[in-house]
Amino acid sequence: MPVHGESVQLGPWTGGVNYAVPAEDLGPNEVFQMENCRIGVGGEVLKRRGSTPFNSSALVAGQTITSIGEHRFSASSTKDFATCGTKFFEGNGSGSYTDRTGSLTITGGDNNTWVFANGKGTLFGHNGVSGDSLIKWASAGGNIAAWDVDSRFTTAKTVEFWDNRAWAGNLSSGVDRVWYSNLADIETFGANNFFQLGEDVTAVKRFGNALAMHTENSIHLLLPTGNASVPYRRVQRANAGTIARRAIQTVQIPEFGEVQIFVRRDGVYLFNGDSTQKVSWKLDGERFWDDLNQAQLDECFSIQYPKRNEIWFWVPNGSALQTEFNQAIVYDYIRQIWYGPFTDTNRNCAGIISRQLYAGGYDNGIVYNQDVGLHDDASGSADTAIAAFFDTAAASPRNIEQVERWRYLRSAYDVQFGGNYNLNITYFASGIVGELTTVSQSGDFDQIEIDFRIATSTIAGEGSLASEDITLSGYDPSIRVRYQNSSLDEDFKLRRAVAVYTPLGRRRKPKSGVY
After folding, report:
1. What is the Cα 274 distance to its own chain's centre?
2. Short-list 284, 283, 282, 258, CA closest to 270
């Protein structure tokens, strides 16, 4: 029997998540809140992938991973590496590691994290810790060695390789200095080869044909002059730089070209070469950014994940006691939208190995493959289900004085073939008590080896779309829907939802003014 009414559609969710605005003021393509979900290329919301240990045993028992990465020595030689506790390790690309520390000094500690750069085949860098060795790694299968900088400094918090020179900033010889090596020689530093910015250097990062030198309150660009006596010209371009030496990425965006994206106290910013602008305003407010431990943001980190056009920002969400980076909030820099956070992912560093994202754990010596197919988080001894949910905008077809009678909700999703994966759907509003319904994501298709019947059942192809209706009840100008799955190894992929209602017109609220 036909239902007489009108409808409002929610999704596809191409606008990402918006924590700054009430649900009633969001567009139908925005998400009010979410955890452990990402937004696909078509605007669908799906459960994030899981994580699993890369190495079967701890690199150093009870110690925190302080760096991960992949280093290219030459066109034919590439190795992954990690630092943990007091050790530097070479990986074989499959989770097996060999100690390459030699006689050099490395101090363990959660905040003793490393920044490295590739100087034409030689890895070099430091962790900014006094007494620890400046290191270089010149060949696969060999130990690390001391990076000779002609005694110009003994510590460096940030390094880069640009214009065929090694660069180092925030140093023992001056926290406001940036030193640079001679041309084509990362171990020769002239007596006057430095720039002094007048305030603490927070990062040095190559940027097109320039080098960007960041402080919290400025960004300076170095531009080649072609003059051997005065090789660079310094120009200040912006009054807001990064606060976190490990939370700055250079990426290419169609609208802007090459940009730098970095963390500041009040959010994430973009630098286009001339000025900065905030790109994280949708994370503002008490529902996300205000909940972060601001005192620990200096040590937060990010990683560019080119495979998905994403930057993952690991942040400390919680009180001042939350010193670990326990959540990753994700920025899709091509579509310029946010999603997440990904919770229960306490990590201290991250790197890309063979195009895949890996992250380092706390106090366990474990490197994790952070984006694997199974929808659970594995520790090596047990698997933990991923609790994933998202809330739509509060659909309001007309204005807040217009009351609707809500009739039913149709949800469109991709059929899941891995098993009988259920999806919990809850609807609620200010004038409606929440009600939960559980639906199967097998659609109208019978599952093979469970209830499939020859000559009776319908076969679904890969990527088949199904829909399910649930009954709505209640009277309110708007309605919000939550989709949730917290089961082990189960997935979901929501495409859109349509809520059907009967318009009732304007209704005066009881006890509102004089009648």
Report:
1. 25
2. 258
DSSP assignment letter at 336? T
If you ran DSSP here, which 8-state letter would residue 497 be given?
A: E
CATH of domain 244-362: 2.130.10.10
Tell me how far apart the alpha carbons of residues 252 and 207 are, in angstroms, rounded to a whole number.
Answer: 11
pLDDT band at 456 (very low <50, low <70, confident <90, very high): very low
Structure confidence at residue 463 as a pLDDT band (50, 70, 90): low
Using alpha carbons only, give the angle 316, 317, 318 rounded to the nearest 5 degrees.
110
Architecture in CATH for domain 6-48+389-506:
Sandwich (2.60)
For residues 489-499, average pLDDT: 95
The whole-angstrom separation of Cα 247 and Cα 235 is: 23
Measured CA to CA, the distance from residue 153 to residue 124 in angstroms comes to: 14
What strands lie across the sheet with 174-180, from one edge to the other? Answer: 156-162, 165-171, 174-180, 194-196
d(CA 423, CA 427): 13
Closest CA to 426 of 392, 398, 457: 392
| Cα separation, 27 vs 428, whole angstroms | 18
Residues 6+ apart with CB under 8 A from 113: 66, 67, 127, 246, 299, 301, 348, 349
Taking a C-beta distance cutoff of 8 angstroms, is the pair 42, 414 a contact?
no
**Under a CB-based contact definition with an 8 Å cutoff, are residues 481 and 424 in contact?**
no
Are domains 6-48+389-506 and 244-362 of this chain identical in fold? Answer: no
Pick the closest to residue 242 from 220, 216, 266, 261 (CA basis). Answer: 216
Peptide bond just before 12 cis, omega within 30 deg:
yes
**pLDDT, tens digit, 9 for 90 and up, residues 130-168:** 999 999 999 999 999 999 999 999 999 999 999 999 999
Q: Which residue do the tokens 């809330």 mark?
A: 391
Domain spans in the chain, listed from the N-terminal domain onward: 6-48+389-506, 244-362
Answer whether residue 461 shows pLDDT above 60: no
DSSP code at position 181: P
